[in-house]
Amino acid sequence: MNSDNPQSPLLQRRELLAGGGSLLGGAMVAGQAVSQVQARPDRVRHYVLATHDRDFVCDQIYEFLGLAPTPKPPGPGTTEKYGFYSTMMRVGGTMLEIVQPIKPDHHLNGWLAERGGDGGYMVVMQNFDAAALKARAAQENLKLTRDQMFLGQHMIQFDYKRFGTHFETYQYSPEDDWWGNPLTGPYSDARVASDVVGGEVAVENPQEIAAQVARLFKGGTPDGDGVRFGDKKINFVPSDGQWRGLVALDLKAREARRVGDWARIGGVKFRLV
User: Fold this and answer.
1) Residue 35 pLDDT class (50, 70, 90 cuts)
2) Where are the domains of the chain?
3) Secondary structure of residue 25 in the 3-state scheme
4) What b-and-e string marks burial along 79-109, b requiring 16 or more CB atoms within 10 Å of the CB?
5) Cα end-to-end distance, the chain, whole Å
6) Beta-strand (E) ranges in the chain?
7) Which tens digits make up the pLDDT trace of 54-109?
8) HSE-up of 47 (CA within 13 Å, CB side)?
9) Three-state SS for 271?
10) CATH fold of 9-272, please?
């Protein structure tokens, strides 16, 4: 990893360990340490694309982004016992995950059939207070499709029928090395893009959904028909009778001459901005 990159997860980790909102940076009140965890805003951590041909989609992403393929460890992958293949890759401080169902009855097959092919499957968030998130979800009368421990992480998932795409969130442990091990995994830096700075989700009612997402996730700031989470933004756009869901990703181009280039990969438009 390039530690000189201002978007580098290594720098983010140093900031966390220096007290930028971590447990190590708790204040002292009346002689007792007060954790700042609950004050930390939720963050966009990674995006998931679903496909029937994982290798083909991964190769296209590697080529477009100038990204070295993620090494494949020997033996079965972590997710195979759950019925799907998964490949993780890192772009700056954001993970991309490409999944492919293995079992004929896996729910991904039903989603791909409903979608009519490959597409953006999920937006994955990090939260620091799962109980508070669930309380806000109850106030919004939102349905949780998952609320469980998964591989040591508290996972909550919202009904994609409401938000157009699956919004999934984890209270990670350890909190500064999230799903896919971006700080310790065998990832290379993309030559073409420094980070994924935005996602675009198509829904019938963009303003309504954007407002609700801003209320639901801590620290989400409304911005037009989108919501900002720090340096990343999720935009909601009209579906216009077409497919709902995650339809585009915005990636920060390393070179100005590449701004405006784009490619449609796995049913998702990859745009250099």
Assistant:
1) very low
2) 9-272
3) helix
4) beeeebbbbbbbbbbbbbbbbbbeeeebebb
5) 22
6) 27-29, 32-34, 43-50, 84-91, 94-101, 119-126, 144-150, 153-158, 166-171, 193-203, 221-223, 226-229, 232-238, 245-253, 262-265, 268-272
7) 999 999 999 999 999 999 888 888 899 989 999 999 999 999 999 999 999 999 99
8) 28
9) strand
10) 2,3-Dihydroxybiphenyl 1,2-Dioxygenase; domain 1 (3.10.180)
The closest alpha carbon to 92, from 203, 250, 221, 226, belongs to 250
138, two tokens: 């109850």
Position 32: which residue type?
Q
pTM of the model: 0.84
- Chain length of the chain: 273
SS3 273: coil
Residue type, 85: Y
pLDDT, one tens digit per residue, over 197-217 is 999 999 999 999 999 999 999
